[in-house]
Design goal:
Blueprint (H helix, E strand, L loop, with lengths): L1 E4 L16 H12 L8 E3 L5 H4 L5 H9 L4 H7 L5 H24 L1 E4 L20 H12 L5 E5 L6 H7 L5 E8 L12 E5 L5 H17 L5 E4 L17 H17 L4 E4 L8 H18 L3
């Protein structure tokens, strides 16, 4: 099982910033310490080639990110202060998902210890998302001719508005977003299938909705699933507003991964959100996802 990371390129944040940048390093360290992955299975991500990135983003926006010419409004919407390190880290994060997808085609699963940046639109970022790694990867897979149908299974607690917008009108891509209906973003862009859940949704309600949604996804017969395994549906998450337990998240991941394994569908696994305090709760949820991935699909 091969997994890519980009935390070797840190980016500066102001003291007290609410984005939990350290979770990426903490997860990588936990995967090694717990023996879930070996050092030979963890690889520093390569930057996404700009021509691949341009499949989903305008060249004007890409250049603005690289050169630091973002408007103050877009920088505020992203919620992360621009720096050369942030620009480079964003290229690495997208590159990791693209590399993980290529591994998944060969081995059944590949992972990125970042990614799931599903709020980024074609011409701007938002919601801690600079570029949309999932949209880029879906389009790149189709452009290469390696698959004819891709499904995005987005289980971050926030609706995948950027992914929905970039991939709209592509009948060969199915986008599922299962999210908190009243949560960010407040202007939602329709996915192929959106399921909005009420605040304080519990495990049983969530898993029932997911089971029905997965039936619809599987009926699409995808040849790749891009799985956003967000940890932010946890009850302890500061930005989540749902009430899932760690056991509920474990059942969620098992349901998705076992369905893909049963149908022989490769899985590209990305992290998406997670904002619990203490941060160990978020790391434990992401770690659990990889334990299950190794058990169900990984070699």
């Amino acid at each position: 099982m091969h997994v890519f990371y980009s935390d070797h390129c840190p980016f500066p944040l102001p003291a007290g910033h609410r984005f939990p940048a350290e979770k990426y390093r903490l997860l990588r360290e936990a995967l090694l310490q717990q023996g879930v992955l070996t050092s030979l299975e963890l690889h520093p991500a390569d930057p996404i080639p700009l021509e691949v990135l341009a499949l989903a983003h305008t060249r004007t926006y890409i250049q603005a990110v690289l050169d630091g010419y973002l408007s103050p409004q877009i920088e505020r919407q992203i919620g992360l202060p621009w720096s050369p390190e942030l620009a480079w880290r964003s290229l690495l994060s997208v590159g990791g998902t693209w590399q993980a997808a290529q591994v998944a085609l060969q081995e059944g699963i590949g992972g990125n210890l970042a990614g799931g940046t599903h709020h980024a639109l074609a011409d701007q970022g938002m919601g801690f998302c600079v570029f949309n790694d999932v949209a880029v990867t879906a389009l790149a897979l189709l452009e290469a001719g390696w698959v004819q149908r891709v499904a995005v299974v987005d289980l971050d607690v926030h609706q995948g508005n950027g992914t929905a917008a970039i991939l709209a009108g592509r009948p060969e891509i199915f986008t599922l977003s299962l999210h908190g209906e009243k949560n960010y973003p407040f202007r939602k862009i329709p996915s192929t299938l959106d399921i909005g859940l009420p605040d304080h949704c519990d495990d049983e309600t969530y898993l029932t909705a997911l089971r029905e949604a997965l039936d619809t996804v599987l009926a699409f017969h995808p040849q790749m699933v891009l799985y956003l395994a967000g940890a932010d549906p946890l009850a302890a998450d500061r930005l989540g507003r749902l009430d899932l337990s760690h056991a509920g998240l474990e059942q969620r991941d098992r349901m998705v991964l076992e369905a893909c394994a049963a149908y022989g569908i490769p899985v590209t696994l990305v992290m998406a959100g997670g904002y619990a305090k203490p941060i160990d709760l978020t790391v434990a949820a992401h770690l659990q996802t990889y334990v299950l991935a190794r058990e169900i699909i990984g070699n």
